[in-house]
Amino acid sequence: MTIQISRQNYSKRIENVRKQMQAREINVFLVLNALSIQYLSGFWHLPTERPTALILPLDKDPVILTGQLEIRNVRQRAPWIGSEALYFDYPGMKPPLSLFAEKIRELELNRGTLAFDQREYRAGSGISSQGEPISEKLLEPAKLVWAGDIVSRMRYIKDEEEISILKECVFWGNLAMNVLQDYTVEGVSEAEVSLHAEYEASRAMLRAMPDGWGPLAYGHGPAHVFMKAGPEAILSHRNPSNRKLRKGDVIYANASGNIYGYSDELERNLFVGEPDPKIRKLHDVAMKAQDLAIDAVKPGKKCSDIQKVAFSAVKEAGYADYVFHHVGHGRGISRHEPPFLDDGDSTEIMPNMEFSIEPKLLVEGLGHIGHSDTILVTKDGCEVVTYYPRDIASLTCK
After folding, report:
1. 24, 86, 271, 343: most buried by Cβ count inside 10 Å?
2. pLDDT at 134 over 80
3. Is 150 helix (H, G, I), strand (E, B) or coil?
4. Domain range spanning residue 70?
5. How many CA atoms lie less than 13 Å away from 273 in the CB half-sphere?
């Protein structure tokens, strides 16, 4: 099983970026996006108020610039890449990006074209009211250009190690969903069921992993499990509450394995007792929409094509008013990332792209109807890598 990206793979990714830099006549690439830094170097960090940059010259060794708090993490997680701590803490007497710019001048890298993937650093991922911009003056005479698409488009296509990690995540996500369903009993709260299932699935996963292993996903354990039940399940991204499960509830259940920052997306409806005819009809329509979307995914198609096909089934059934989000999204080291299966995304689908497929119906007074599965695009279609049962009989909790 693969549980981390190899150093050789990081070197290959950097060389691929350099090929794009050469084609665009870029001399230096300043990478500020935390996930892109992880993708290229293996250094994972939480991008709050402490800026970090990967400086990637076309013809010199790369270096990571950060603050004193993170420098040990850089050297532990990416010992093969140069690193330097340039500031004590944010914001400090001199802004960190200004210190980064001065270091670029010191290294004589402020020549030719200098590309960046973010125009500024915002503390707390946007919590700060004022962003810290890249100083063009400090980087003169370099010409500054945006080139964030270089790494983001590389991240669209999953390599062999990423696919292997994903499939390992799927195994543990499947186990976690199974445990969650076992604990789903009338009269027990959403939060209690979620916590029990996450603990048990995470414990099993940890016992299978090498000593010292960690999931490298902030805020989530090795297995991530939660549920929302009943009418409030239509409220997006809410944590489980102390609400007790009731007979007739439709549950929105989510389970995944987390490895090296990657995860699968597995979402299911669970039913507390036999669902009534209305719920069955809604479920059948959501499943038809998902099947149509999965069958439509092929290399050469546009992402927008998939949404049109899936929603045709929903519209035909007269349920268009129950749709509030697109059919799916790309996945990788971020749970949600481009491209999107959305009317506004004309990206061409290519082999080894990874997507969630999740057409949902959100019904006031009832809840959240529909499943989500993770797929990988193949040379002539797609592979559904998540495999938990989807039929009502298998998902009904007695």
Report:
1. 271
2. no
3. helix
4. 7-155
5. 11
